[in-house]
Write a structure and sequence with these properties.
The protein is α+β, with helices and mostly antiparallel strands and about 250 residues long. Helix content is about 15%, strand content about 20%. This is ARSD Arylsulfatase.
């Protein structure tokens, strides 16, 4: 692929099987990590991505190639074998894969590399979306997105290059299947981020933070609790979504 296209623009999209269950890890990487089979899978994924980057560097394409590495969702909390956690870990964030609006299922890092254009070591703490890939790629290719419809995504280049300081996503809507579970409001003038949950998964057992009895949380029916008024969190101060606000605690 590279040798056919290295002298002209190309788009390479790689969807890795890693780090998805079942954790397919080759013999070479089994037992490499201190963190069990999941860690082995992460290390093999790291090696695979490294091989791709090595070719980009070897072909002298480093400074002209825009690379975006991301995940489609957070860790899968219900994936266990005995006491071994097979589906990842979401740190301080509540919930995980398939849970509608909780941060653990939707807040994933994006890692960008474009040495000729993007400054190294920059950290941007702004909410973006995988829906932004399409308009970003269109802009990089010198095209224009369709003007006859509203697109959910926005080009990331102004944010990445520092010509804009804030994400163009003032609101993000978080669905579970076809059901709206939560809405995030990024209040631009203050930098405050609010999130309202209209429905949340019913954890089983209740205090477990996941749906272990079902194997994965469902989006509707008796698998969710509905909130009226919605559960409201100030994400900029409470990223773990531990303290729902009320009119008493947050008059605004």
């Amino acid at each position: 692929f590279y040798f056919r296209n290295k002298h002209r623009p190309f788009l390479l999209f790689v969807s890795l099987l890693h780090v998805h269950t079942p954790l397919i890890t080759t013999e070479k990487f089994q037992g490499r990590s201190r963190h069990g089979l999941y860690g082995d899978n992460v290390e093999e994924m790291d090696w695979m991505v490294g091989k791709l980057l090595d070719v980009i560097d070897k072909e002298d394409l480093k400074n002209t190639t825009f690379i975006y590495f991301a995940s489609d969702h957070g860790g899968f909390l219900e994936a266990h074998r005995g006491n071994s956690q097979l589906g990842g870990w979401n740190g301080i964030y509540k919930g995980g894969k398939g849970m509608g609006g909780w941060e653990g299922g939707i807040r994933v890092p994006g890692i960008f590399r474009w040495p000729g254009v993007l400054p190294a070591g920059t950290v941007i703490d702004e909410p973006t979306s995988l829906m932004d890939i399409y308009p970003t790629v269109v802009q990089l290719a010198g095209g224009e997105v369709p003007q006859d419809r509203v697109l959910d995504g926005h080009t990331l280049l102004p944010l990445l290059q520092g010509t804009e300081q804030h994400s163009r996503h003032e609101f993000l809507f978080h669905y579970c299947g076809v059901f709206l579970h939560a809405v995030r409001w990024h209040q631009k003038d203050s930098g405050t981020i609010w999130k309202a949950h209209y429905a949340t998964p019913v954890f089983q057992p209740e205090a477990s933070g996941a749906c272990f009895k079902r194997g994965i949380c469902t989006c509707f029916g008796d698998g969710v609790a509905h909130h009226d008024p919605p559960l409201l969190f100030k994400l900029s101060q409470d990223p773990s979504e531990a303290n729902p606000l009320s009119a008493d605690t947050e008059p605004l």
